[in-house]
From TrEMBL:
Record-level GO cellular component terms: cytosol
Lineage: Bacteria, Pseudomonadati, Pseudomonadota, Gammaproteobacteria, Legionellales
CDD domains membership: OYE_like_FMN
Name of the protein in its database record: N-ethylmaleimide reductase
GO molecular function: FMN binding; oxidoreductase activity, acting on the CH-CH group of donors, NAD or NADP as acceptor
Organism of this sequence: Aquicella siphonis
Keywords: Oxidoreductase
Cofactor dependence: FMN
Domain NADH:flavin oxidoreductase/NADH oxidase N-terminal, residue spans: 9-338
Length: 350
């Protein structure tokens, strides 16, 4: 009997090969210590999942004031870098491959995490709703980043990528999805700028591309992936029909860069978006981007196998099933039933 496509190996590029097509999706767990240093419990958590073809870590902040929660890990100082070495060593000891997701939350934050300052974003905006994982806090106003602040952020991404590489990561994923900082520049609802970072697809894509080049120059483009959500769906960004043009432009530019992959940031990849020519996010990316594509959002063994065999995408990332089933790949391989995900599982880091 033929081996299912999902268990076949995949050559990402001349530096990196995956032992199967299943990636562990990045998932924030808020189990780092108060100084944003990862713990040995986190090393065991990731090592347990090293059967994945690729592990993508939880969002890891590039600066202290890039965060929107307490207890998320960082990669901007020596102690964090040293502690991440335990994680990469443990994953590599189990023959795993691991990328770090680099994160700046932008407006999805609160002054209480930012020494009292307003969160930065592409523009001045107002978010409503409660801050996730922080009791009693409400989102609110953001202020537009100055050009100097944007340049500082780009440099922080480059330093974070170098730190991650020094800590033993096989690569990094730029979190350009899910309504966080880079995504705030990519959608018209949140980007009202009139300088070279707003107003046109070229300008709105500029920050994403500058970050990509800064990281690519720091550690090599083959070790840099990017997560994107061309359809607005999370953190109060509304879709705009013109957003599709921004992502077409960005993906066209990405085709010219020898980066590792593009990864769909989504919870339900069956959803179609009017601004994406009524396509799903993954089919829109596949239409406009010719490099390696990781689909994500509600996939099962059957839907992932079908998508890979139809060439709709190359790899699949699974999130919640990996929280509920540390041995997910083995269970899929041996057709054992999966434990269903339950949000209560987030309280412990098994
Ligand atoms: C608890 C939790 C935390 C998450 N944190 C992140 C994150 O840090 N970065 C990110 O890009 N996506 C994050 N996501 C989204 C997942 O990467 C993924 O897109 C989502 O869970 C859908 O995949 P699934 O249906 O296989 O779970 C998170 C999801 C969950 C459930």
């Amino acid at each position: 009997m033929a081996i299912p496509h999902i268990f076949s190996t995949y050559t990402l590029n001349s530096l990196l090969s995956l032992k199967n097509r299943i990636a562990m999706a990045p998932m924030t767990r808020v189990h780092a210590d108060a100084l944003l240093v990862p713990t040995s419990e986190m090393a065991r958590y990731y090592a347990r999942r090293a059967d994945a073809g690729l592990i993508i870590t939880e969002g890891t902040v590039i600066q202290r004031n890039a965060r929107g929660h307490d207890h998320v890990p960082g990669i901007f100082n020596h102690d964090q870098l040293q502690a991440w070495r335990q994680v990469t060593s443990a994953v590599h000891a189990n023959q795993g491959l691991i990328f770090m997701q680099l994160w700046h939350t932008g407006r999805v934050s609160h002054p209480s995490f930012l020494d009292g300052s307003l969160p930065l974003s592409s523009s001045e905006t107002i978010m409503s709703g409660r801050v996730t994982r922080a009791q009693g806090l409400q989102y609110g106003k953001s202020r537009a980043a100055t050009r100097q602040e944007i340049q500082d952020i780009v440099q922080s991404y480059a330093r974070a990528a170098s730190n991650a590489f020094s800590a033993g990561f096989d690569g990094i994923e730029i979190h350009g999805a899910n309504g966080y900082l880079i995504d705030q520049f990519l959608h018209h609802d949140t980007n009202k700028r009139t300088d070279e970072y707003g107003g046109t697809p070229e300008n709105m894509s500029r920050l994403a591309l500058e970050v990509l080049h800064a990281c690519g120059n720091a550690i090599g483009y083959e070790r840099v992936g990017m997560r994107l959500s061309p359809g607005a769906y999370l953190n109060e960004i509304s879709g705009n029909l013109r957003d599709g043009l921004v992502f077409r432009h960005l993906l066209k530019q990405l085709n010219r860069i020898p980066m590792a992959y593009v990864h769909t940031g989504n919870f339900d990849d069956a959803r179609k978006f009017p601004e994406l020519d009524n396509m799903t996010m993954t089919s829109f990316i596949r239409t406009h981007y010719q490099g390696t594509l990781i689909a994500c959002g509600g996939y099962t063994f059957a839907s992932a196998e079908l998508g890979i065999s139809n060439n709709d995408f190359d790899l699949v990332a699974m999130g919640r099933p990996f929280i509920a089933n540390p041995d997910l790949v083995q269970r899929l391989r041996t057709q054992l039933p999966l434990k269903p995900y339950d949000a209560a599982m987030l309280n412990t880091l098994y």
